[in-house]
Task: inverse folding
């Protein structure tokens, strides 16, 4: 008993409707998942800021300013997801099984990929707010450490954006005509790999940046040492995100 | 078609292996880096020692991430190419 029935299905399926269904599902996945990270992270940042304001009411203006900057950086992960969702829903796509797999992969890549970076950036901002509340004179040092840390935390989301854009806009899937299941699944797997793989580095680097902001508040004079350790440790944390990016690349470009 | 299904399964699991496998090491290494920063705040003169200890610990934490990478590459190049 073979799988000839699957071949029969493959010949009879209307690829146009499947591709359109997959692009709407992918758009929903991208934005639905992509909204989580930024929301949670910015909320944590806001909560810590309110708590610090209760400790130091005189520093409210500075605390809120720092909070808004930190929240803006956490928001970028969500904006990437919005852009990818628009691209998925409104751009025309050639109808085939491979393109359908690539579109779902793109939605998963950006949706999952913004999760870790959003929460991580918010975590860093929240601990910075806590730190400034404890020691308001260290605001300059802490804010600088927070910005550097948040920038590193957002880089997995940038990799996810790159993979999502390649999957949506890339021309390499246009030559297939709906007969290659492994190409469709490889494209989906590439998006899943990058999306899930970006979660860990985003969160981990956010935890590292949070620790660095806390440290910069306690000992502002050691600011450059702290930043150095944070960047080194954060770079090691990014390494598995790079591996995921490489595997996603291989799955997109080197599967025939 | 059977071959296509087998190849598709190998490629999907390569993506799962690396995607899920990247989460743990990164979280652990980030936690170590955060604690190292807090340690530097407590004893700034000891920064080189703290950095060295952090990197040793992170290298051990990376090991399962390397295993995931190896399995993903094996799945793609031995079983994903038919």
Result:
């Amino acid at each position: 008993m073979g799988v000839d029935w699957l071949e029969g299905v493959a010949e009879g399926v209307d690829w146009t409707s499947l591709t359109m269904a997959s692009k709407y599902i992918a758009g929903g996945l991208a934005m639905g998942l992509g909204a989580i990270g930024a929301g949670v992270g910015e909320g944590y940042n806001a909560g810590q800021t309110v708590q610090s304001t209760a400790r130091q009411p005189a520093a409210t203006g500075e605390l809120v300013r720092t909070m808004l900057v930190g929240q803006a950086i956490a928001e970028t992960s969500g904006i990437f997801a919005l852009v990818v969702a628009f691209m998925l829903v409104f751009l025309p796509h050639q109808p085939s099984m491979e393109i359908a797999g690539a579109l779902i992969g793109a939605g998963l890549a950006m949706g999952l990929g913004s999760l870790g970076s959003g929460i991580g950036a918010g975590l860093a901002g929240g601990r910075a707010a806590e730190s400034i509340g404890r020691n308001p004179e260290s605001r300059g040092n802490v804010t600088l450490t927070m910005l550097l840390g948040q920038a590193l935390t957002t880089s997995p989301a940038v990799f996810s954006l790159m993979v999502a854009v390649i999957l949506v806009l890339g021309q390499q899937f246009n030559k297939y005509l709906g007969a290659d299941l492994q190409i469709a699944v490889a494209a989906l797997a590439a998006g899943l790999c990058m999306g899930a793989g970006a979660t860990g580095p985003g969160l981990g680097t956010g935890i590292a940046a949070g620790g660095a902001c806390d440290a910069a508040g306690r000992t502002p004079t050691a600011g450059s040492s702290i930043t150095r350790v944070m960047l080194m440790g954060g770079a090691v944390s990014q390494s598995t995100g790079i591996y995921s990016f490489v595997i996603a690349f291989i799955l997109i470009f080197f599967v025939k | 078609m059977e071959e296509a299904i087998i190849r598709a399964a190998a490629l999907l699991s390569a993506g799962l292996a690396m995607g899920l496998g990247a989460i743990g090491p990164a979280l652990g290494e980030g936690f170590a880096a955060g604690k190292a920063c807090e340690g530097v705040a407590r004893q700034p003169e000891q920064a080189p020692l703290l950095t060295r200890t952090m990197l040793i610990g992170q290298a051990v934490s990376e090991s399962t991430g390397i295993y995931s990478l190896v399995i993903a590459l094996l799945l793609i190049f031995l079983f994903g190419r038919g």
In short: Residues 32-253 of chain A form a domain with the Four Helix Bundle (Hemerythrin (Met), subunit A) fold (CATH 1.20.120.610). Chain A is about 85% helix and 0% strand.
